[in-house]
Each structure stands twice: as structure tokens, then as C-alpha cells.
Specification:
single chain, six-stranded parallel β-sheet, alpha/beta, about 425 residues, 2 domains, Rossmann fold, 16 helices
């Protein structure tokens, strides 16, 4: 059987959670059906790297397409903004041409943005990967903005690359941000519900969000499922933690929840942690740090270091006592947590940061909900014997839930039953 994935995202390099999931799908399908039978239909610009399967690049919408979509679809409530920014008749025709040529038995459409390119007949036989429940994400961002007045909720995040530059200033002030989020929350919720009802099966990465969508739509469990991401366990993972109070934050720093979480940690937890552990060090690994956060981190140098994107995480994570995941809002499953588990690295997270992932002493994921709790748990993990115990739990957790055999078994069930539309 041949497979087609339709997306506006280049999954390589896998330097963001969304890319990790898509790259995992590519690897799974290439393994099951052979790379020559897997087709990746990429909307927009060409990829930045060589592709492991057959790649088909189709043109994205132009300015006229956007203006038309805003006027005829968004204004009437027929589409969300993210659908409008990636929707056009020209793109639809190019996708149809590719799919007609390759005749895939299984099609996977990436989120509601690409689901709009499947008519009802096609959707009834195919799969949509919804990623996170975006309406839930926006709801949490609005709640966080109301609760924490210092939150920069920037609604565009890593979707900004698809927004015309002249429209981006709308999201640069708090009033504009809230307006966009409230509007998009309602629009995308409608699109999510509609997509779930149209497609044979919809997939999310968070089991709790899958249950929420099932409740909203009244659909059964075999129509809306949760699937774990596929991360390769690093070969020969070796932990070198000898008790040094070295900690790591990992993530794409342009995302609002990462920016806010790290800023909160540096302002509220770091002073207490520094007092308790004078030799404590924090390594911040991730691209696209915002100016305000960068200035804050640099004011705490050299004990806080901003290192940007790191291709090989082995050295950074192998010697750390823990990964810190201090998120105050967000949705989905935080892939940084699973990355840490794959390297047997203990995780200290807020309850929100650990959603969708088992937590507790025997999982390698320890939860703290205030600054004092973070300091206590991080301090305990500087004990080599205790760290080794939690590290072992992290590794077993990964093997049980996120190892290649475990994920492949879940994917076999999730992607089963693909067929060409009649």
C-alpha cells in the first residue's frame, strides 16, 4: 500500500515537537511500506534538507487567496484563521493532482489546515492528525493571561511564518492578542468538531484532549484516538550525574508557554534555588529566544547559559541532574519530557507541563506546583543514589510507553483500515 501525508510543515530537522511527530509518522510508514511507497505532500516552500521518502512540493496560497478566504470564509464562520492562511483553490488543485498521480491507499492530513483539502467522500475513508486541541490551547492561554498579568500570550507562536508580515502587528499588543485568541478559539473549535465528524479517524497526542473531543462530538473511541510520538532511544545512553546541581531547560523558546514558563522559573524559582544550591547551573537549550527572556537570562550569567539549538543532546542531558519543565499553561504532550525519559533523565514539571504523561515517583516525572516545591525536588535529585533511582524509573517508563515497538503497535491500530476513496 502507498501512503500520502499532506502537511505545510517540513519535519526536518526535528527541532520542535510538531516536527518530531511528523518525522515519526514518516519513519513508521517507511518502515511498514518501504520509503518508495510513502509520499510527503508539502504545501509551501521546499524543505531545508534531503527527504527520506518521496517528496512533492505544491504552491501555498498567495495574498489574493488570503484576502478572499478572510472575506468569504473567516468572516462567515466557515473557517478558522489558520485554515484561511493555508487555504486556496490553487493549492487544492495542486494537491489533487499529486494524489491522483500516486493513488495512495492511505492519506493522513495534518491538522484542520490540511483537512480542508479533503472533501467529505475522501475524509470518510481517511485520517486527520489534529496534533493538539488548539481550541483548548487558546482557552488556556486566555485563562493564563487573566490570571498572570505578566504573560505574553502571543497567539501566533511558531505559526507566524504563515502570516503575512503586514498583519503581524495586530498580535503585538495585549488587546489585539486577546481579540485574536477569542475569535480563533471559537472558529477552530467549530473546525475541530467538524473535522472529527467528517474523517474516518482523528488522532491527537494527548489522551485527555482526545477524550475531550469525543465528549464534544459524541464520537466513539475508535473515531478519535491518542497516539504517542515516536522518538528514537539514543544508542548507549549513559548517565553521568554525580550530584552536581546542573539542570536543563529544553524547548522552542518562541512558543508562548515555553517563554512564559522559563521566565517564571528564572524570576520565581531561581533565586530560591540559588540560595539553597549556590553552585546551581541552568542550561537553556532552544531556538528563537525572545528579547525580554534573553535579557533576563543574560543578567543571570554565567550560572544561567543560553545555548540555542543543540544538535546532539547527549552531552547536555547526560550530565544533568534533571530537566525542568515549569509551564504555567499549554496543551498537548510536551515532547521534551519524552526526550528526557528516552535519556533516563529525571523531569521536574508543573502539573500542566506533565499533562498527558504518567507522573509520580516510579515514572521519572516528578511534579511540583510552586517555587518551594521545585527547589525541594530539584535539591533531592542532586543526591546521586536517589537520582539513579529516578533515572531508572524514567528509562523503564520510556521503554514501556514510548519505545519503538510500543509506538509501532499503537500506530498499527491507529492507521489500520486505510483505503482509496471510491
Amino acid at each position: 500500500m502507498s501512503v500520502a501525508l499532506i502537511s505545510a510543515v517540513d519535519p526536518y530537522p526535528t527541532d520542535a515537537g510538531k516536527k518530531v511527530v511528523l518525522a515519526g509518522f514518516v519513519e513508521y510508514f517507511a518502515s511498514r511500506y518501504g520509503p518508495e511507497n510513502v509520499h510527503y505532500v508539502r504545501v509551501g516552500g521546499p524543505p531545508a534538507t534531503d527527504f527520506p521518502v518521496r517528496l512533492h512540493v505544491v504552491p501555498g496560497p498567495n495574498r489574493a487567496d488570503l484576502a478572499r478566504a478572510l472575506a468569504t470564509r473567516v468572516s462567515t464562520g466557515r473557517a478558522s484563521l489558520q485554515e484561511a492562511f493555508l487555504g486556496s483553490a490553487r493549492t487544492a488543485a495542486a494537491i489533487d493532482e499529486v494524489l491522483a498521480a500516486v493513488e495512495p491507499g492511505l492519506r493522513v492530513y495534518d491538522t484542520v489546515r490540511m483537512a480542508q483539502y479533503a472533501d467529505d467522500r475522501v475524509a470518510a475513508a481517511q485520517i486527520c492528525y489534529l496534533d493538539d486541541l488548539f481550541s483548548d490551547r487558546y482557552d488556556r492561554m486566555l485563562a493564563a493571561a487573566a490570571r498572570y498579568r505578566d504573560v505574553d500570550i502571543n497567539p501566533l507562536g511558531n505559526f507566524a511564518e504563515h502570516i503575512p508580515r503586514r498583519l503581524r502587528p495586530i498580535a503585538d499588543n495585549r488587546v489585539g492578542q486577546s481579540m485574536l485568541l477569542r475569535m480563533e478559539r471559537a472558529l477552530v473549535r467549530r473546525s475541530e468538531n467538524r473535522t472529527a465528524r467528517r474523517f474516518r479517524r482523528s488522532l491527537l497526542v494527548n489522551a485527555e484532549e482526545a477524550a475531550t473531543l469525543r465528549t464534544r462530538t459524541g464520537l466513539p473511541a475508535d473515531r478519535i484516538m491518542a497516539v504517542p510520538p515516536l522518538l528514537a532511544a539514543p544508542p548507549g545512553t549513559v548517565r553521568r550525574c554525580g550530584g552536581a546541581p546542573e539542570f536543563v531547560f529544553l524547548g522552542l523558546l518562541s512558543l508562548p508557554h515555553n517563554d512564559d514558563g522559563l521566565r517564571w522559573f528564572l524570576e520565581s524559582v531561581w533565586p530560591l534555588l540559588s540560595a539553597a544550591l549556590p553552585d546551581a547551573r541552568l542550561r537553556v537549550i532552544g531556538r528563537e529566544i525572545r528579547p525580554g527572556l534573553k535579557a533576563l537570562a543574560e543578567s543571570l550569567a554565567p550560572r544561567v547559559s543560553v545555548e540555542g539549538y543543540v544538535a546532539d543532546l547527549g552531552e547536555a542531558l547526560g550530565g544533568a541532574a534533571a530537566l525542568v519543565n515549569p509551564l504555567r499553561f499549554g496543551s498537548g504532550v510536551k515532547l521534551k519530557v519524552i526526550e528526557a525519559l528516552s535519556r533516563q533523565l529525571p523531569v521536574v514539571s508543573t502539573p500542566i507541563g506533565a499533562e498527558g504523561i504518567d507522573s509520580g515517583p516510579d515514572t521519572g516525572v516528578l511534579v511540583a506546583d510552586d517555587p518551594a516545591g521545585f527547589v525541594r525536588v530539584l535539591g533531592e535529585l542532586t543526591d546521586p543514589a536517589y537520582n539513579a533511582e529516578v533515572s531508572g524509573s524514567a528509562g523503564r517508563h520510556f521503554d514501556r510507553v514510548y519505545s519503538r515497538p510500543a509506538v509501532f503497535a499503537t500506530y498499527d491500530a491507529a492507521f489500520a483500515g486505510g483505503q482509496a476513496p471510491a
